[in-house]
Amino acid sequence: VLFEDILPLFADPLLHKSLIRALELQVTDAYGQKQTPDVVVGLEARGFLFGPSLALRLGAGFVPVRKQGKLPGTTETAAFEKEYGKDFFQIQSDGIKPGQRVLVVDDIIATGGSAAAAGSLVRKLGGTLLGYVFILELDFLKGRDKLDAPVHTLLSSQEEGSSKT
User: Fold this and answer.
1) pTM (2 decimals)?
2) Is 144 a known active-site residue?
3) Which residues contact 8 (CB under 8 A, 6 or more apart)?
């Protein structure tokens, strides 16, 4: 699997603005103006780069999901499998109120484990999971198959066994 560098998108103000606008259009097209999320949940760490900006454009709040032990206060925890073992995500217990419509965002969907963990945290807090939004999907890893809500991506990339020099 190649590691895609999305950071240049944020170094150029026009590209950054275009990215946020493209994500906003994708969300409003998928859910309509009246069903946009109340909360955008961004996954550590690259979901923090565009999640807050997208939330502002959608008129929603932003709540981070972080690795275990990084958030203050009371938290809820969900485990997920990584290539090299188990890891844990946490969300603050008061980050989502019951019934709030929630969208989970991250830069890339690969195997889907971290996004699935975030979705389970949303449901644990009583949120209504509208779906997941990613900039890029690595199709051949079939990560969307692990997710139990609609998945929206701007781009799909990479074939199995591709390499970069």
Assistant:
1) 0.92
2) no
3) 15
